Structures are given as C-alpha cells and as structure tokens.
Amino acid sequence: MVANPATSPPHHFQRRGHSRSISHPFPSPFSSRRRNKSISKHDFLDSDDDDDEVTYLPDPLSSSPRKGAPRLSPGEELTTGKCMTCNCSVRWPRNLKVFRCTECLTVNDMEPHRGSPESSGHAHPGKDDKPLPTIPRKAGRSCDQAARDKPSRPYIFRAVEEYIITSFKGCDCLNSSFTTVQHALPSTMNPLIYSSSQHVALHPGATSAARSDRRPSNTKDTGHKPVPPDIKSPSRHRSGGPGHHSGIVKRILGLLANLPNDCHHYLVSWFSRFSAGQFEKLVDFVGSFVTYRLTRQHGRKRSESAQHDDDLIPSFSSAAGNTPAELHAAINGRSTSKQATEKRDQPVVYSDDWQLRAAARVMSLLFTANNANVARKPDGILGQEAGSAAKPQGYRRGQIVPVSAFYNTLLDYSDLVADFEAWESKSTKFSFCQYPFFLNIWAKIHILEHDARRQMEVKAREAFFNSILSRKAISQYLLLRVRRDCLVDDSLRSVSEVVGSSQEEIKKGLRIEFVGEEGVDAGGLRKEWFLLLVREIFDPHHGLFIYDEDSQFCYFNPYCFESSEQFFLVGVLLGLAIYNSTILDINLPPFAFKKLLAAAPQTTGPQPATTRSTYKCNLDDLAEYRPPLAKGLQALLDFEGDVAETFCYDFVAQMDRYGEVVAVPLCTGGDKRPVTNANRREFVDLYVHYLLDTAVTRQFEPFKRGFFTVCGGNALSLFRPEEIELLVRGSDEPLDVASLRAVATYDNWSDPRPEMVPVVQWFWDFFEHTQPQAQRKILSFITGSDRIPAMGATSLIIRVACLGDDSSRFPTARTCFNMLGLYRYTTREQLEQRLWGAVLNSEGFGLK
C-alpha cells in the first residue's frame, strides 16, 4: 500500500488499478468526481451496515468491489490467508498483492508499506500563511444559542474539513503525530467552534480515519502506531449513542486484537502505565462497544441450515411410548410441543460475531494490564472525574481499577448455560466463558450451580441403573449419619470411607442425618452440619490451624501433630461446601485462596483466554496474616542506617512451637550469614516464603488435593481468588436489613398487606435496630448461616409465616426454606422475649 504524507506533491501518488477510494462501499464526499454534486450532512456519518443485510456482496475471488471487475481465470492459482482485522480466512489469486475481506470489507495489502523519501521524518500537512482570526472571549456567551439555531451557511467549515482530511490521509503523518514530547494543555481559545459545528468540522477527520482503518498499512516497524492514538481520540468517547462511530471502532479493535504477540506485550505495558482515570475510560469504552454488539444480536435467531423438510418428517414429543393419537397428530401436522418451543425466544447468538471476539481480546489485554504491578501515572484531569468506593481495594491488590469494572451485566440476560456448554465442547469460535472477567459473581455462581447439578444428576442416574442391574439398594445421594456429640470423628470417618471407596461417590448430592433426631434434610440439616463441623475443626484448641491475635485470621499449623489425612479431609469439606452451595464460617486469609487457585491441576478441557494465575508470596500477603511482623520487615527494608550493626540479624526465621521459640535457618549456613544492606531484600523474601509456603507444605499439599477431588470441574476455572473467597465465606459486610425486608415474602397471613401487620413490623424493627452480633445470631437462626450470600442481601429471601393467634410458644424456623414462623403476639415485648429465647436456646431438628 502506498500512503504518502499530506505534504507530498500530487504527482507522487502511485495508485493501482483498484482505487483506494473504492475499497469500501462509502464514497468520498470530497473526491474530484463529486465536486459538483450537492453534499448533505449524511455524507459524513459513519455506518455499521456491513453486519446487516446488504443488497450487494462483493465476489470473494475478486480483489475489487467493482461489479465490472474481471473474473478469475480458470487456471489461476488461489491462496488462503487471514484478514488482519477480523481474522477470517480469505482466498484470493496468488498473483495479487492485495485482497479484500468479504466479512469485514477491509482491504489487506500483502506487501509491507514503505514511506516515500519525502515522508521520512515528522510529516505534517501544510500550514497556511494567513493568520487565524481572533475570536473575542465574550463571543462564547452566545455559543449555546448559536448551537441551537440552524446554520445559515452549512459549508463555512469546508476549508477546515479539507485540512483535516489531508492531515489524516497518510499513515506516516499519523505515525509521527500524537507524540509525548509536549503535553497537551487545555485551551479556551476559539469558543465558537462548538457543539454541532464542531462535530461537522471534526467528523471528516474521523471519516478519513475510517477509510484508513478500512485499508490499514502493513508496516514492519510501526504498523500498530496509528491505532493507540485513534482509540484514545476524544471523538470516540462522545456520548452520541450506543453505536457512535461503531464503524471505526470495530476495525480499530480488530486490528488491535490480531496484532502479533510481541505487539500485545507492548500494548499491555503501555496500558498498565495509564492513570486510573484514563484506564477506566478506556475500559468503559471497550465495554460499551461489547454492550452495543450484544444489543444488536438480541432477538436474532440462531443461524441454521435450511430445513424445508420439517413438515415431511413427523415430530414426536417424546422418544418412546407414543400413542396413536400422537402419531396421527405428528403425521398430519407439526407437534404442539414443537410449536410451543418455537414460541419461546431463541437464545442470543454471538458465537460468530467477529466484532465481539475482537473486543473481548482487546479487553483481555486491558485486564492483563490492570493486574500488572508497575509504576503508574498519577491521576490528572481524567483521573479526578472517576472515583468509586471500590478503588482503594483495587489499589491494595495492585490493580488500577477494581475487577467489577470489567463486568457486563447485560450477560445476565443471556443463556450462560449454553455459553458454558459450548465452551466446554469447543464447538464455537467464541464464548464469553473464554473471557470470564466479563461475568459477574452471579453469572459465575449460576454456571457453577449448573455444573454441580449436572454432575449430581449423572451420579444419581448411574446409581438408579446400578440398583436395577445389581438388584441392590444404592442411594442416589451421599448420606452421612453423624452424632452431635461425636461430630468431627463421625464426619471425617464417613467422608474418608466415601473417598477411599470411590472418589466419584463424593459427587452425589449431600444429605445429612443426625442420629436420634427426626429432621429430614432438605438443605437445613446440611447447613447446620457444615456450621458445627467447621467451628470444631477450625477451633484453635484442635491444633490444625493457628490464629493471629491482630488479624484474627487462621493459617495452617506447621507443627501440628495430626496426620496429613486430616488436612485432606478438611480440603474435601471445603470443596463439598462449594459443591453444595453452602457458606462456611472460616477465617483463612485472602492470600490462601490465591495460593489454592494457583495450585489447581492442569486439565485437558478448555481454558480461559486470560493467563493462568500464578502465585508467589510477598510481603503484602504476610501483612494480611501477621501485620506486626510484616511491618517490622518493611521497616528493615526502609532503614537508612547500617542494618548489620543495628539489628544484628542472621538468615534465621524465629518460629513459635507451642510457646517455644525455634530458630530455623532460611538457607544453607543461614545461622552464620548476617543480614546487611546489600542482602536484606533476599532475607525478607526468604523469610516470607518460609512462613507462608515452605513451613506448611506438609499441610497444604493434602488440603489442596482434597479440595480439587471435589471441585475439579471446568466451572471453577472461571473464578478469581477473591471470588472464591466470597463464594466460600460469603459476605461479611454489615447486614442490610432494609434489603432483606424489601425482598421478604409472607405466608399464611389473612391480611391483604401482611407487611403492615403489627407483629411483622415489630420483628423487622427489632431485627434492624439490634446489635450487629445479635443480628448475625438471628440470621443464623432463620437461615442456618450468619453470612450473606455472595450475590448480596437481595438474593436471600426470608419467608415470614403466621403460626396462629397469640400464644406463649416460641417462634420456629425452617432453615431448609429460610422460613421464620411467628405467632400474633399482643405486645412487642412479648415478641422480643420469645424470639430471643428461641434464638439463644435452639438446637436440633424435628418433624412437623
């Protein structure tokens, strides 16, 4: 491709037989052939019509979109390659050096672009010698009124438009533009270039850039340079609608997505040095385009092959057992079940959308840059505009913006189960499970529950057929019978027997039976079993875990006397909780979940497009678990004096073994190697690595193995460490009683508005104004857990039922259904006394 700068004389342009001006279906509004024609404002508007039904589709074997182009000769040899924008396979004659993609209409040059000798250096358009007129500042007051008036001279900016088009014509000019030698300063000059007039004047530049994007240069060294300034152009971020400049944006994203890997590394490094405000705007920009493409896909039917024989083949509602009436109906017409199926909305189809695929790949680059721990620019004007409460948490984790900034809530209304199954089967080119950062915690939990339910159904079906073939009673569930006074021993022994006999049995649905009690497990007994068992296992007197007094977090006890099998069973217990959607009251530090997820075994199934998480413990992780020790080590690193003479440290870690201080060398000969200013960083790294990794290897390895024995599916790979923590522990945020009250339901109340019944109002008022610790106890009494689910308070629906008229009996709770039963107490004091007595003295389950 030949692309000369704006300063080159006209006679230097060497065009091929196919003119660049006809390499796309949009004519140039200022070409020589249209000088005498009337120009309307619509000539400057970009379009996104190439993904809709068009009246003309170019010949895939032709290098020119002209209808009169010569056809391919029969003996001419074809070659196949990839389009640089949409990455689709295209065939074209081998003797041609340029081809046009039939999918995205982009012209691809096969020969690298080389600028002319005149274009070397900083190319720029010619500057007029005439001085620019000065507009007084007071004229800016009438800008608002002038913008609303209809322009009397629509071509007043013709010279400016031609200047902008000339400036954006050549790639060399673009490559040498947008340098960082001088920072751009905001200016208040020329206030009359405003609103619609400014849009009309600057839009030809965008149109010229669109033409450049339709035929990008194939340069060896600077081919990706024009793209970053183009994607950061302020005109791209104007709020002109969801599809504003989509015709340009889709090609920019396509070019970025299909750059070589070394260019992607440069882009990630470049993105990671953005200020928080700039980075957030860029993430919102790409995310808005994804949303726009999803809305365009909404309602489109699934692409299928022609099915003209539907009326010739009978359709049955079931695979077997068809009655004569069903057979007659199937032969004479289409079945009612098929008609009912067609009435339902088809799932959203986006697997063949190259624009979504390109935007997702660019977003993955931004997501990688967001987690890169590098020095960043301070927030300037852009950074001050975007502020959120979640930013401090993102900065604490070394992120520019929080992970939630990448979520796309429109995907909650898509068929995520179908997306997950297509991703597992590798049957489509694109699925959002390849890019899990788009999915919020609700979407991922929905997929995880589907995966768990599917595996449970498979095991239940296998157990059913095995019971028929073997003529033995085989339970469809994993039934554990335990005694309350021997809860830990009975539970660990039962789980050990199940895992030892067959690891596949652990994938069945879990059912708990307390010996000597009448309760039937519909979910409540399982919650109670998990709650009591976790409290016993994680009790510091049990010796498996040790607690830090400052952080209140627990971690593996390196000097535990229990066998490694105990930690394997603890890992199985943690996996069972996730597998059965149960929240646990455990206080493992956040870095423990990062360590656990990074140790996941390699699977042969599909993998997300993002890089696999790796874990290397650092001083920040130690600060989560033991803040005073981390603070002391940081002070050692920041000390400006002589470390050896002041601290007199050796490469030795001081460990506490049941009240006895034990010195452990951190390296060979560490007890004789002093810590100096030169090696103090090495000392801190070895100290942290020993405390969090080496010392607990005997405990962590079986724990990890037990966890992934249960949770070894593909759905778990979609989660990030902080999401796994939220999934296991639930949310420890203060209870939002108002939200719980808003989504609550009421049963067996004769009043038309049960929420206005005095006893119901007394309960919610008491629940809302009591102490936080008491609120947790009431929530545990009703639901079996004192934690809010990971999806928030609105996902926890409490059912308040009426048990009858005034009575001296206590309220009851059905934790299986999150139900609270209340009597119509006459006074509020009676309600509070009875409710609090039930909360403090409740234990065990019965039948009703």
UniProtKB/TrEMBL annotation:
Residues 1-77, 110-148, 203-244, 297-318 are annotated as: Disordered. It is an enzyme of class 2 (transferase). The keyword Iron-sulfur does not apply. GO terms for biological process: protein polyubiquitination. The keyword Ribosomal protein does not apply. The active site is at C816 (glycyl thioester intermediate). GO terms for molecular function: ubiquitin protein ligase activity. Residues 12-21 have a biased composition (Basic residues). Residues 22-31 have a biased composition (Low complexity). This is HECT-type E3 ubiquitin transferase.
